[in-house]
Amino acid sequence: MCTACVLGYAPLALAQDGITDTGQSDEGQRRLGAITVTAQKKEEALQSAPLAVSAFDTEALELKQIEGPQQLQFSVPSLVFAQLTGYTQLSMRGIGSDLTVTAGEPTVATFQDGVYVGQLFAQAVPSFDLERIEVLRGPQGTLYGRNATGGTINYITRLPDYDYGANLELTAGDYGRIAVAGGVTGAIVEDKIAGRLTMKHDRRDGYRHNIFDGKDYDDNDLFSAQGSLLIDLTPDVQIVFRADKTRQSASNVVELVEEIPLASGVSSATPLGVFSLPAPVLAGIPGLFSPSDLALLGNGSVADFYGLTQPGFAVPNPTETTDFANNFPSKQVFDVDGFSGTATFDLGAATLKSITAYRESDATIRVDNDGTSAAILREDPIFQSSKQFTQEFTLSGMAMGSKLDYVIGAFYYHDDALLKADLITPSIGDQVALAGSLTSPTPPPVFDLSQPFIPNLLQLIADPVLGQTLNNPTIIADGNLSFGADQESESKALYGHGTYSLSDKFRASLGLRYTEDTKDVFRQLHSNFVPAGGLCDRQEDDSWEAVTGSAGVDYDAGAETLLYGKVSRGYKAGGFNPGECVGSFDPEFLWSYEAGFKTTFADNQALLNMAAFYYDFSDIQFTTYLGNASTIKNAASATLYGLEAEYVFRPRVLEGFQLDGSGSYIHSEYSDELLQDPTGLATLNIGGNQLIRAPEWKLNFGAQFETEVGNLGTFLLRGESSYTSEVFHDVFNGKAPFQAGTAEDDYWISNARLIWRPNDDRFELQLFVENIGDEMYAYSRVASATTASVTGQFSPPRTFGARLSMKLGSSR
Questions:
Q1: How many angstroms separate the CA atoms of 378 and 480, rounded?
Q2: Nearest CA among 251, 253, 254, 248 for reference residue 124
Q3: Start-to-end Cα distance in the chain
Q4: Exposed/middle/buried for 139, CB within 10 Å: 0-12, 13-18, 19+?
Q5: How many alpha carbons fall within 13 Å on the CB side of residue 567?
Q6: DSSP E strand stretches across 5-104
Q7: What are phi and psi of 791, to 5 degrees?
Q8: What burial letters (b/e) apply to 144-160, b meaning 16+ CB within 10 Å?
Q9: What is the pLDDT of residue 479?
C-alpha cells in the first residue's frame, strides 16, 4: 500500500477516495491537503478556502479514534474540551462557554449534516460512520450565525452508495471495554434509491472507585444507530433522508478538589465544619449563638461541648488517583433522536438546497455535587428536554461571467426546552432540627434564600454518621430546593455571502447576516423550607437582534500558496437565569481581525498553514456560583490575540516517514471589572486575568512510520503527544480566597498506535495505548458557596486495547 493512502492521520487530512479528485502528483501520491470541504457552504479544496479550518477524513478519524470534541482537542489548535455533569463546554481561540442547562447555549456551534445541534448535553454524544469532520476557527457570523462566536464543528456522515458495501469493527480494551460497530450500504432501486444502515454498541466498566460504597463509577454504555436514504428523483434533483438515535448511560462523578475553610471549615483540621471552630470565631453570625450560648461554650467549640466526632472518609487527590469518596451514586442518561431531509436542486446556473430537521434530546442527571462522603448537596435529578425544529434554504452559484461566487440563505430555528432540577440538601434538615439557642431551643427560623447556604448553617453537620443530634432527635426531611424553566426559543435569519474575482489571483469577499432571537420563559423556584410567599413563579420574554458579517480578501501568491485577510463579527443571544427568580443576561459580541496563509512546498513534501488573529470581545457571558444560585452574568470586555500553525512534513528520502502537528499561542485578558467571588469573601478586579479555558500554549505533535513487510502486508507505527499550558476555569484565575483549585496545571497527553494491514486491504488490526503517562486533568473545576468547595470532573486514566476492522465492497 502506498504511503499516501494512510496520510489521513495528519491534522490536515488528505482526501478520501470518493470525496474529491485524488490530486495526484507525478509520484502517484495524493497531494497534501487535497481534501474537499464545505466550510463556506460550497465545495472547495481545503488549501483554497480563505479561512482557518482543520479537516479530517475517514481514515484520519478511524486511525485516531476521533468520535467527538474529547479527541478532536488533541489534533486542532486552540480547541479545548470541557464537561460538567454531562454538559459540554467548548472553547476555541479562548472564546468559549462555561454555561449549563437551558439558559446555556454553545459558543462553539455544532452541526451534524448541516443541522444545528442546540443543546449543550447533546454536543459531546459520540459520532460514528463519518465521512469527515471540519473545524472552523473564528466567528462564523455570516454563514452559521447564532452561537458560532468561537467557531463551528461540522460532522458529515457517509452517504449511501449504489454499490454494495459492508463494514464491521470490534474493539476490546481494559476496564472491560467491548465495542461493536457495523454497517451496510447498497442500491434499493438501481440508480434511483440507495440506503445505508449503521449501528454501534460501546460499553465499559468504570474508571473510578468509590471508597464510600466500594463500587466503580465513571462507566459508559452507548448505543447508536443511523439510517439514510439517497433518492435521485431526476438527474437534477436529489433528496437525502437521515434518521439517528443515540442512548448513552454514564456515571460521571464530581470530585472534591479544594475546600474553602473559612466558609465551611470541613477539613482535616475541622472535621465537623463550623462545629469544630471556637465559638468566638462564630460569634459574628447573626442569630447563631445567644449570649448565654457563648458563655456556656467559652473558647471551645460545639463539637468539644458535645464530644462529637466524624468517622467520614478522607478525600483522595483526583489528579493522583482514581479513588474518590461520594455518598450518593451519580448517573446520567442521554437520549437523542434526529430526523432530517436534505433536498438539492440543480437549476443550471445555481443550486438550491433545503435542509429540514427535527431533533429531540433528553437528559436525566443525578450527581453528588459536593464531591465528598458528606451528605451536603446532590442533584436528584436534573431533567432536561429539548424539541428542536430547523429549516434552512440556500441558493448558491456563479454570476457576472463567473466572477461572482455567491451563497444566499434563510434560516429558522425553534426550540421548546424544559428544565426541572431538584437540589437535595440533607444538611438543611439537620440544620432545622438544630436551629435555635443551645440553651433555649426555639422554633426554627425561616430559611432565607437570599443568603448563601453556609451562613444559614447548611454545613453545621458535615456527615450523616454523627451518631448524635443536638436538640431534637426527631427525623427531619431532607432540604429540597427545586427550580425549573420552560423556555421557548425562536431565531430567524437572512444572510448572503459573495466572493468576487478581481483578477485570476486576487479576490474580495463580503458577507452579511441579520438575526432576530426571541426567548419566552416561565421560571419557578421552590423549597420545602420556604413559606409559600417566598416562591417564584415568573413569566418573562425578551428579544435581541444583530447584524453580523465578514469582509476579506485573498490572493494566490503562487500555484501552491494562498494569502488571506478578513474582518468578521460574531454574536451570541442573551437569555434568562433558570436558577433565579429574577435576572437575565445580555448578548455577547466579538470583532475578529485575522490574516493567514496556506502553502505546500518542497515539491509536495511539506505543508504549512498559519493564521494570526486579534479579537475584541464584549459583554462576555460567564457563570458564577454565588449564594444559592448558578448565575450567568456579563463581564465587561476582553482582548485576545494569537497565532496558530498546522504542518505536515513527508520527506521522500525517508520513505514512509511523516511528521505532523499543530499549535497555538493565545494572549487573553479581561478589562477592569470588580466582581464578587463565589463565597462572597472578596470583591476582586478581574482586569488582566486570562479568559476561561484560554491556555497560552497548546501544542500537538505526531510522527509515524509505515513500511511493507513482504507477504505480511503493511505495518504503521504512530505516536502522538499534546501539551496544554495552564488552564483557568473561572474569571478569577484561582486568585479568589481558598480557590486556587480552579486553576489547572499544564499537562501532556500522549498516545501510541500500531496498525497492521494485510495485502488484500480488507482487514486492519490496531493496537493502541492512550494517555500513556496516566495524566488526569480536569474537564471542569467549579468554586461554589453552596458546597463551600472547589469540585471538578476529571479525564480518563491510561487505557489500552485492540481494534479489528473489516471492510467489503464500496466501504473499502
A1: 10
A2: 248
A3: 13
A4: buried
A5: 3
A6: 36-37, 44-45, 53-57, 79-84, 87-92, 95-96
A7: -120, 165
A8: bbbbbbbbbbbbbbbbb
A9: 64
CA distance 740 to 47: 43
Residues 183-222: pLDDT tens digits? 999 999 999 999 999 999 999 999 999 998 999 999 999 9
Map residue 533 onto helix, strand or coil. Answer: helix
What is the tally of helices (H) and strands (E) in the chain? 6, 44
Instruction: For residues 254 and 741, give the distance between their C-alpha atoms in angstroms, rounded to a whole number.
Output: 14
Q: Quote the cell numbers at residue 657.
A: 516517514
Half-sphere exposure at residue 134, Cβ-oriented, CA atoms within 13 angstroms: 26
Question: Which residue type is seen at 443?
Answer: P
% residues pLDDT > 70 (the chain): 82
Bigger pLDDT: 462 or 349?
349
Note if the bond before 261 is cis, omega within 30 degrees.
Answer: no
Number of neighbours of residue 803 by Cβ within 10 angstroms = 20
> Residue 313 in 3-state DSSP?
coil
Distance between CA atoms of 259 and 270, rounded to whole angstroms? 11
To which residue does cell 462572597 refer?
Answer: 680
Taking alpha carbons only, the member of 508, 630, 495 closest to residue 571 is 495
Tell me which amino acid residue 121 is.
F
- Give the torsion through C-alpha atoms of 117, 120, 125, 126, to 10 deg: 80
Distances, alpha carbon 181 to alpha carbons 123, 127, 198, 756, in Å:
21, 12, 7, 19
Q: CA torsion 675→678→679→681, rounded to 10°?
A: -10
pLDDT in tens, 469-487: 333 334 445 667 788 889 9
Q: Are the CB atoms for 85 and 118 separated by under 8 Å?
A: no
Strand pairing partners for 555? 506, 563
CA dist 456 and 469 (Å) reads 18
CA 159 to chain centre: 26
Domain ranges, ordered by start, for the chain: 3-256+320-424+482-809
Across 749-758, average pLDDT: 97
3-256+320-424+482-809 has CATH 3.30.70.2860 classification: no
Buried-state track 181-202, b at ≥16 Cβ within 10 A, e below 16:
bbbbbbbeeeeebbbbbbbbeb
Side-chain half-sphere CA neighbours of 784 within 13 A: 20
Give 142's Cβ-side CA count (13 Å radius). Answer: 24
Whole-angstrom Cα distance, residue 493 to residue 499? Answer: 20
Question: Model's pTM, two decimal places?
Answer: 0.88
Q: Which amino acid is at 371?
A: G
Cβ pair 77, 700 in contact under 8 A: yes
Q: Note the pLDDT tens digit of each residue in 60-76.
A: 999 999 988 999 999 99
Q: What SS3 class is residue 141?
A: coil
One-letter amino acid of 606: A
Nine-digit cell at 254?
464530581
Which secondary-structure segment (H or E) carries 249?
A: strand 237-250
Q: Which three cell numbers stand for residue 311?
A: 468517622
Determine contact, residues 432/529, Cβ cutoff 8 Å. Answer: yes
Please say whether the beta carbons of 131 and 58 come within 8 A. Answer: yes
Q: What angle do CA 504, 510, 511 make, to 5 degrees?
A: 140
Q: Which residues of 335-360 are buried (b: 16+ CB within 10 A; e: fewer)?
A: bbebebbbbebeeeeebebebbbbbb
DSSP state of 360: E
